[in-house]
Amino acid sequence: MNNAIDTEGTVSGSSIVVVGAQLGDEGKGKIVDFLAEGVDIVVRYNGGCNAGHTVKVGNKTFKFHLIPSGVIQEKIAVIGNGVVIDPKVLVGEIETLKSEGIQLNLLISHRAHVTMPYHRVFDEGKEKKRGGEKIGTTGKGIGPTYADKMKRTESITILDLVSEQFSKKLSKVLELKVSELLEFKLIKNKDGLENYKQKIIEEYSSYAEKIKEFVSDTSLFLNKSLDEGKIVLFEGAQGTLLDVDHGTYPFVTSSNATAGGACTGTGVGPKRINRIIGVVKAYTTRVGSGPFPTESTDKTGYFLRERGGEYGTTTGRPRRCGWLDTVILKYAKRINSLDELALTKLDVLSGMRKLKICTAYELNGKVINEFPASIEELEKCKPLYVELDGWEELERNEWKEIARKGFEALPKNVKTYVNKIKEIIKIPITIISIGPSREETIIWKN
Ligand code: IMP
Known about the structure:
Elements: E1 15-20, H1 28-36, E2 41-44, E3 53-57, E4 60-64, E5 76-79, E6 84-85, H2 87-99, E7 105-109, E8 113-114, H3 117-129, H4 142-151, H5 158-161, H6 166-176, H7 178-183, H8 193-211, E9 215-216, H9 218-227, E10 232-235, H10 261-264, E11 275-281, E12 284-286, H11 299-308, E13 320-322, E14 324-325, H12 326-336, E15 340-344, E16 354-363, E17 366-368, H13 375-380, E18 382-389, H14 396-405, H15 412-425, E19 429-433, E20 441-443
Parallel strand pairs: 1-10, 1-11, 2-5, 2-10, 5-7, 6-8, 7-9, 11-15, 14-16, 15-19
Antiparallel strand pairs: 3-4, 12-13, 16-17, 16-18, 19-20
Helix pairs in contact: 2-8, 3-4, 6-8
Bound molecules: inosinic acid.
């Protein structure tokens, strides 16, 4: 096995999955960028342009929605079959990267499905109709694209998009969509269908031209690369509780954001996965609707949002914030078979006198340790906390100095906070991020 990223004795293995252990926005982009230095290939396996990954390099900030974050390290970037691709967004990202002079080594799965212009309209329209029962989607057309994929007859794949058959395939799909197109006023009557189709063909054919050189059998490529001893990093989008099967359904996204998605979403079998890293933010956030037991709507929530810059990368929406919830983390450990944790944004907690960590819930007078499937039950759960002492504010250069020295240089109360999490979850915390830049990262051998 190739252990080329085992430079500090921490991260080894030839295929590593990086997965969100909470509700997305855990800082996966930074962790992937950090690890990408030691890998050959970075692969996205789920979601679409609902995801937003922010990576800071020097004084530049990059925001990606579709292309894996590792592309900044000029690694081979793969978009797997489990991703839904909005070609307009993808072409925009390709052009941005080219204009930044970043060498682009991109492969796009021919089996991935395409987000069409009507998917966005359906997504927003359906949300409006839900009234007070909104999911709080990003409005990027993700749910409707995956729904069409599952229907089997109403979806366009990347293979269709770049083939000669695109127009014929689109006609068939649009015929099946007439009532929805009428409902959401995309056509006035059935006669408007041809004109609507021509407009899509014109726009999407130009995207097809720009992406077709990247389209290939990415499962074949990834498996061959693993055979050759290459190191592959699988980058999950969103987080465990937004997974369509294991999350807080129906307040979830429409894909498998958990580690299992790395296999189905890329065509690499489970036996080939060596290591699974759960990314955890030092507190909890959620965008969109759905239960959130440790949510704080008072000054703690406000502090975390403003200090942590907790506003959506994709939509700019303020994120709901609250204390760290280890019931969620223990659940994430089980669902994803986590080997280790990467803890992010620990610096954001500085300046708080007391810190709380949720260790269990109280439901109908009973203490529960397992994350409930029922939304109604989850809404009634009251978090049970342990309280710890906080730590003083530190300047950015002080954090950087600490990162250079390593874990032991952290203030005592920071170490106590990290050790408490480790003690509860019972897996190593191998990466600790104490700031947005690459230099503000500690590898902890524990
Ligand atoms: P959708 O994925 O746009 O359908 O949105 C479904 C739910 O997932 C909503 O609550 C969104 O706010 C949430 N969501 C989707 N993508 C992300 C993400 O990248 N980070 C955090 N939440 C997300």
